[in-house]
Design brief:
Pfam families: ABC2_membrane_2. The chain has about 130 residues and is mainly alpha-helical. The chain is built from six helices and no strands.
Length: about 130
């Protein structure tokens, strides 16, 4: 996926050593692939509530989850027949909310690519070579 390539290149441009770049890029991949991204709203709510678990899922958790590039890619593929993605990506919902629709998912993917590219270019230009 192009998003992970752009993330890896940006991380490489920002970090000082190749070891740090490799570890950080792998860490980002793990955060998105193993659904750690989806747990972040719960962790924030846990901290804000004084280290007590909330009774329900925070209000903005579902739209935040849709910002995961893997989830966005899955939502883009929502128009494909079931099983066309080889079962590797989670199936999109039958009646998607606005943030689960393919058009929004394309914007999310392009946003990840644009933001990380801009951050990498800015960091690269600001560095003293």
């Amino acid at each position: 996926m192009a998003v992970f390539v752009v993330l890896a290149v940006t991380i490489s441009a920002i970090t000082e050593t190749s070891t740090r770049a490799t570890v950080a890029a792998f860490g980002m991949y793990v955060v998105f692939t193993f659904r750690i991204w989806e747990q972040l709203p719960l962790v924030v709510a846990y901290i804000v509530r004084g280290f007590r678990w909330p009774e329900s899922t925070p209000t903005g958790a579902a739209p935040f989850t849709a910002l995961n590039p893997i989830r966005a890619f899955s939502n883009v593929l929502g128009g494909l027949p079931v099983g066309a993605n080889g079962g590797m990506l989670p199936a999109p919902p039958a009646e998607p909310a606005f943030y689960e629709r393919p058009a929004f998912a394309v914007v999310v993917l392009l946003g990840w690519i644009a933001a990380t590219t801009a951050g990498g270019v800015y960091s690269f230009r600001a560095s003293d070579l």
